[in-house]
Design a protein that fits this description.
globular; two-stranded antiparallel sheet; 166 residues; alpha+beta; single chain; 6-stranded antiparallel β-sheet
């Protein structure tokens, strides 16, 4: 971090214009790490609208492309859902009282895959929360490439009691 000469505030030297959270900042909010961290940056966050948008640059070196499928690399649908869930986890981690807790899938409903995601695509991950309680949450997720929906689903998670995962 460096000081911003305009107002003396700390500035992340890796931050890019239009980026709300860098990969390093995402790692400070959720426990996922390479090779399973599937959100590269957060580009929009609106607590009032209960909405967050992340980006995932899909590269040919992703571990899952080795077997899915040789000669025709396709990002597995479950990985697209996981990327949406991780984006939702960043939103939840930013809410008061949730920073040190992790959610676990409780349901995936109305899931549809509409477009193949391949190396070179920039996956836009948009999540709008519908409900967030102390123990449970639900939101709508849409993953898209170039404005075309690749995947959409309603994601529900539970937050286990403290100590349940230790």
């Amino acid at each position: 971090m460096t000081d911003d000469p305009a107002d003396g505030s700390a500035v992340d030297p890796l931050a890019l214009p239009g980026v709300v959270h860098t990969t390093r900042e995402i790692e400070a909010l959720i426990p996922h790490r390479w090779p399973f961290l599937l959100v590269d940056r957060i580009v929009e966050y609106d607590a009032g609208a209960q909405r967050i948008v992340g980006l995932k640059g899909v590269t040919a070196t992703e571990w899952f492309f080795q077997g899915h499928f040789p000669g025709l690399p396709v990002m597995p649908g479950v990985m697209q859902i996981e990327a949406l869930a991780q984006t939702m986890a960043v939103y939840v981690a930013k809410q008061p009282g949730f920073g040190d807790r992790i959610g676990l899938f409780a349901g995936i409903e109305a899931c549809r895959f509409k477009r193949i995601v391949q190396p070179g695509d920039l996956l836009r991950l948009e999540v709008t929360m519908e409900r967030l309680g102390r123990r449970m949450g639900r939101g709508q997720g849409v993953a898209s490439v170039d404005g075309e929906v690749a995947c959409e689903a309603s994601l529900t998670f539970i937050i286990p009691p403290e100590g349940a995962l230790r």
